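Hi V.,

Quick status before I head out on leave. The structure for the redesign project is tokenized and pasted below; the design run finished overnight.
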């Protein structure tokens, strides 16, 4: 019998659908807890889909787990990971609590992954190179803290992702203004707008509770970003991928083009933190590669699957297959490396960022050709989100775009998507 994995996500993020497909290919039976209209519904990966309820998140999560009876639960975003940690804290000696520990690792690490300052201090104590980091508690603290950290300073709010809670500042005045915005409770109007336009109700409860996130100040490392995505089990790394970030959706946004690298600083840091925290499942670590020295500075942990976790690049670099082996004790179905090209343009993000991007021609364009319904769904979403989109019928544009797509005869790095 196939082991069952429940993929949990609170957003309509395309990479979660890609991960579900990859987990199915590795040998898992997949179920998903997600918002309505999640792109996983455009695939055949999930044998059953449970609906996530933003106003009753723990209840909908507990119900999905009870119905799926999974062998493993994988969070696909930071809020999903937080929900699992909160649900674990509300249980006492139950099978649900044991499932969450088996899926995510040691419960002692749960609060650490959501507290950036604590995580950074632990990494420093482990001898890992990290930027100077301090908590900013009040607006009156800002000037002293940022002057100690040094300019430019990066301010980050806990509980945020995708660059939403990150600001770079170069003066004390900028820092104070940014701190007020990052530390302020979320406006209910914004939460309601997100719910109405994007069918995303995850911001409503934090807004009603008037929650104020912890804000940290972190010294800026001049260089470029890198990221590691890991499959691990009881503190041991099973498979890993390390990438240099070449392009992003915007300055503080997610990566759209990455390049596979080997970096001893990164791999050593990841191994230390995974072992020390006793992590299991899928997680990611973000770094800055210093321009002047090439040194890697650990800047963040992502306690969930990241957007590159579905990419199979052979033995030791196939995360879903590694997890399957950990659960079953049998080798997973390792997918042959999808490309030998080190540069990977992530679909649909790089195409949405720039349909004429050189990386769509020179790199491997990671289009899910075996799942054409998902390709079409991604095109529809990208067209809808473009600046010229209106509420009118765009079926002609969608049809024209998707009809022009065709997988390459041999190497999908040659794939082309039409200009929008």
């Amino acid at each position: 019998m196939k082991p069952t994995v429940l993929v949990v996500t609170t957003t309509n993020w395309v990479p979660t659908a890609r991960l579900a497909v990859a987990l199915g290919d590795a040998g898992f039976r997949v179920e998903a807890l997600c918002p309505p209209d999640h792109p996983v519904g455009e695939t055949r990966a999930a044998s059953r889909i449970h609906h996530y309820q933003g106003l009753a998140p723990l209840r909908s999560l507990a119900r999905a787990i009870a119905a799926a009876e999974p062998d493993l639960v994988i969070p696909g975003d930071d809020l999903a990971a937080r929900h699992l940690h909160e649900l674990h804290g509300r249980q006492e000696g139950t099978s649900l609590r044991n499932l969450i520990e088996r899926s995510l690792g040691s419960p002692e690490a749960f609060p650490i992954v959501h507290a950036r300052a604590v995580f950074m201090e632990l990494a420093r104590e482990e001898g890992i190179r990290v930027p100077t980091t301090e908590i900013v508690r009040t607006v009156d603290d800002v000037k002293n803290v940022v002057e100690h950290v040094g300019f430019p300073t990066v301010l980050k709010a806990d509980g945020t992702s995708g660059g939403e809670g990150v600001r770079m500042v170069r003066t004390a005045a900028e820092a104070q203004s940014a701190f007020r915005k990052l530390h302020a409770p979320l406006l209910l109007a914004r939460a309601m707008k997100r719910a109405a336009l994007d069918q995303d109700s995850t911001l409503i409860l934090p807004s009603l509770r008037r929650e104020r996130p912890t804000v940290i100040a972190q010294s800026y490392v001049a260089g470029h970003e890198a990221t590691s995505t890991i499959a691990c089990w009881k503190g041991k790394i099973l498979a890993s991928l390390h990438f240099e970030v070449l392009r992003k959706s915007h300055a503080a946004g997610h990566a759209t083009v990455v390049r596979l690298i080997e970096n001893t600083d990164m791999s050593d840091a990841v191994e230390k933190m995974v072992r020390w925290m006793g992590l299991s499942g899928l997680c990611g670590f973000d770094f800055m590669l210093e321009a002047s020295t090439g040194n890697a500075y650990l800047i963040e942990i992502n306690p969930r699957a990241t957007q590159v976790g579905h990419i199979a690049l052979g033995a030791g670099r196939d995360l879903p297959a590694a997890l399957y082996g950990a659960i079953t004790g049998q080798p997973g179905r390792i997918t042959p490396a999808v490309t030998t090209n080190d540069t990977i343009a992530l679909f649909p993000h790089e195409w949405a960022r720039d349909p004429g991007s050189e990386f769509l021609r020179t790199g491997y364009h990671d289009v899910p050709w075996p799942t054409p319904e998902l390709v079409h769904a991604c095109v529809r979403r990208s067209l809808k989100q473009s600046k010229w989109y209106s509420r009118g019928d765009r079926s002609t544009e969608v049809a024209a775009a998707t009809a022009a797509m065709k997988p390459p005869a041999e190497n999908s790095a040659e794939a082309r998507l039409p200009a929008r």
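Above is the designed sequence. The first strand starts at residue 4 and ends at 8.

G. will cover questions while I'm gone.

Best,
W.
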